[in-house]
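#lab-general

N.A. 3:47 PM
ok so I finally got the sequence cleaned up, no stray characters, all 303 residues accounted for. can someone with queue access submit it? mine expired

B.Y. 3:52 PM
send it over

N.A. 3:53 PM
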Amino acid sequence: MNVTAKRSHRREQCVQCADDAVRLDFFVVICKAIFGGSMGLMTGSAGLHAVAFLASGDVLSKGINWLSVYIARKPATERFPYGYGKVQFLSSLLIGIFLIGGAFIFLWHNVQSIQSGQISPPRALAIVSALLLALTSEIVHRILRGIAACNNNAAIRAASADNRVDAISSVMVLVGTFLAYNGWIIADHLMALLVMLFVIRIGWSIVSEAVQGLLDFGLPEELEHRIRTICSREPEIDSIQRIYGRRLGDSFAVELELRLAVDISVFEANNLSTKLRNSIHIGVPHIETIHVNYLPRATTTNG
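B.Y. 4:20 PM
back already:
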């Protein structure tokens, strides 16, 4: 199987994994919103209301995430020669904004409840409910984290982080409901406030990563180092002048500026470019397109 066929097969597998991940994430978050909201009403737990509120906002953001994965997969066109991959960063940006906005709204609502003194201890069922939500969110987080690493998909990575937020939030609610059930009534509401502060922090990190992707932050150091190593092995190359990179969503476009060590023909330069592209595609993950520019070998003057 040649390099192109291997890349195509690997790409198909990544696409299928991404589809499965998005469907799993969307289904689970709907279940968490319904279950958390129902248990919050039945047990009177402010913490479960917080988790359900967060999950309900996630339903909307996950729908945007799902749509972005399909849009980003559209082939490049003459008007959009680099494709639609950056839609994933826009999706991540919206998810982060939803997290931050929802957290501030719930913070205000919970503080009002504490100030009014309208609080009561939750029922014992709230403890079991929080435990189930925590376990579910952590399992989904681990699944999505592995798929995001394989696909280099920013939107799925954001969804993975979102599930980790839900897992930690549910653990905090578990502690709060346990303490409130055993006499410290305000603990349930205090944990709900802490959950929202944690959500704001995670939401900000998602927004920051999305902005970097939208602004063409460049290649990660590890990928650039691998590319330099591959180029340095070729005896025809004297030095690597520059390596440019830009995100295309779940992949990168790379432009190399190389200074030649010897004079070579156009035919030889084309063969060298093909060799470099194949080596980089095999040795460096998530590279989509590679453009190679050559500078003539440096000349020395005797004076």
